[in-house]
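FYI - complex with iron/sulfur cluster, inputs then prediction.
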Amino acid sequence: MSSMLEKVSGANFDRRVFLKGAAVAAAGAVTASAVGCSSGNQEPQEETVEASARPENTLEEVDLWTDLPDPDAEGTWIPVACWHNCGGRCSNKALVKDGVVLRQKTDDIYADEEGQGHFQNRACPRGRSQQQQCFGADRLKYPMKRKNWEPGGVNVNGELRGVDEWERISWEEALDMIASELQRIYGTYGARSVYFSTYAYGPYSNILNTLGGYVYADTVESYGNWKMCCSAYGTPFYNSNPDIEGANDRFDLPNAETIVMLGGNPSWASGGSPSYHFARAKEAGTKFVYVGPSRNITASMLDARWIPVRPATDTAMLLAVAYVMLEQDEQKQLIDWDFLHTYCVGFDAKSMPEDAVLDENFKDYVLGVYDGVPKTPEWATEICGTPVEDIEWLAETVGKQHKVMLLHSYAAARSNGTENLSQLFLTIGAMGGHMGKSGHATGAMYHYEAGNAGPQLVKLGSATSAFVPNPITEVIPGGETWKAIVDGHYTYCGTSGSAVNGWAPKEERDIDIKAIISGANNFLQSKMNVNDGIRAYRKVEFAWANDYKLSSSCQYSDIVLPVTTKWEGYTPDTSSPGWINRESQVITSPVLEEGLYEAKSDQWIADQLADRLGLDRAALSPVSEKQNYFNMIAGAKYFAGGKLMYSQDSSALLTAAAKAKAAGEDFDMSGYTEEWKPLVTITQEDIDKFGDVVGEPQEGVIGFDEIRAQGVYQVEMTDDKRWIGYKDFIEDPEKYPRPSKSGKFEIYCQTKADGINSIGINPEPIKPYPNYIVPKEGYEESFADWSAKERGEYPFQMYTPHYLRRSHTTLDNLPWLQEAFENPVFMNASDGEALGLKTGDTVLVSSKWGQVLRHVSLMESVMPGAIAVPHGVRTDIDPETGIDTGGSENTLLGPVVSNYFPQVSGYNTCLVKVEKWTGEPIPYDYEKTFIPSV
Ligand code: SF4
């Protein structure tokens, strides 16, 4: 360890100094939590008074740490990782001196002037605070064991999970205990007794799958019902991302007259470059419309017209938009009938698909032919709360006479009962003919090759990793996970949340989980129904978690292992080739060659376990981490010309070519070429200097040291590299068919209806076209008597915006961010005043499933009746009352399964009540720490 790092590590910090420090390593003397993994509810000891006092320093002062050398005079700027799955993949830089980070900044390679073909890849406040994540006072420093748990399944004392004390143990002890527990549990109970995090993959899943596999939970994740089966009705699905590639790239945004955003808040959710590109469109004269339950910060920045809509009622609002378009079409020519009849099936009786078994179509449903209820704005407004004039205005705005981009963020579909929303969004876009042309688009605005992104023009090489498939096909529908473990049974509905062929008729199954393993995420915190999650943890015989901070999943485990961040060692982010920054590639370097304190990489831990379990380490970890890092850089390529093809268009082309060949017909493949060239020049001297890797010299366009120093390579953006979604399909629908059965957009989709109805969780069959479904825990259920409009016990609709302070549950522990972004619950000012509340008051928010305390922020920009509880904050259960003083939305969410599709993540459908808290006001989050003491 270098002298500078030793100096910092040996410093004796209190919390106030920590908040001021720019790069606090170790901070071992910070003792805000006196016992176990407590969370600040205990009385502070004498030396911890500063820890619980509200810091006096301001944001301007936080990086004034006079012990450190002048950052302008010393240190080296290096590109460092920001690896969280917000999707930004921005360029972060750190000024490093002897292994200590003195300052951070972001991309400053390019001048970022319009017309230069280059753009800065700017990091958000989260990325620029990451030094507190790596060097934070709350880093886990060594392996720990829960004091009252013993291996063997007898002295488990599971009821103490979450409140027990910790013991420091050696790596040898920790690894021996984990290996012996895995052998015991697999040997005694079998693989169906082990539950492992859904999203985790890589070294730990390889170990578990070699032992026999594990049970996991599947959901449609962040994508809501967009991920249900969008390919079946013809929209793109690539690399687990639905409706990606359908919208034009971000450089086309200024060509739209109007951009309609259905949900979405990139200024908070991925606060780097996406907002900048929307702002460029605004400067160019594009008007914005924002549809959602609040006029959020992105809508404010873009001066958008706000179309208020209650959570989970977007389907009703858009059906009324379709009604107005039909009603007004003769007078105003709003509908592109040619588009509907050329590129779609099922809009009306004239365009039904060949496989239709129901003699119904979308148009007649909207007009009320089948149920006697025309889907008028008056019908919709009772449900969605959107003013009639807003619906009428929106219908005219998205008509075919205007250049419109319809972009969505998935948030509206993270709701129960939104099974038809994605198909309806597509239908509205098709009615206006908004596809395949510059200035027109219908698709995702999400970060990956979508509306604020673009095609991949540079990519890393592949890391070599082993893949051991899971022999267990036991998949618990996501919302049911914790309840299933507590109750011992669940409803099996198939093995996949996103493909029709992975669904199966529902079947009740017993399950008896004995071990919970959190390998690469914090799933106790990130899944709905935290209270059942804690019960599940307390029920099993063994719980093991890895992290670099004491996450909720660690807090309730028996063994906790400290892992390295991606600022330590060569831990290639193997997901990064799929998470690139469009025309840019970010390549980072480690700040430290090895882990801080006793932290080890996931691969090192897996290797040690493989040895103890008698597994073939060489087969499971065939390549070292440093070699993989090198290989990914050596294998990097850039787009050097030809016809850009996204995955679905190229696969459609190849499918059509194969069909033609089978029929003995000619198929013109001319024009389909893509040229990719090596990006990085590597000399033998580079390889020797880098050390411990095998490689061959090669010619590229930027040197090995140069790319590692500047951190970003950007392909110059020119007109020939622009992407217009669906352009190939619109120009030649025969050659580039959509992935649906008909090869067109299916507004009537028999595949969707047959697939969902085969699961059978709703006795009322779903329609093949998009109709309105009354959502579970939606607006209608907030009334005890809907027709009399008599409110029920839980009158508020909770929704869960992604917050700038964190990316899901990560980065939330950083004091700078906690100070800057307080994380209150947001509610309408008139609702708050009716409850006798003022901003800053502590409120008790209750649902059927749990209770949380938070400060409240009253705003005019939240719809009456809605309450926003930001997603991802850390749970902090008061053991006396059972109330979550951390304010997690997942404490309020229960095990509710959506109307038709069991794996939907209904995070934006939860009914709550709000009351003024008469007890002690809760502290601010930056006054609490979660630092385990042993
Ligand atoms: S948290 Fe996301 S938006 Fe912020 S710097 Fe990191 S990658 Fe970029």
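The chain is about 25% helix and 15% strand. Residues 171-189 form the longest helix (19 residues).
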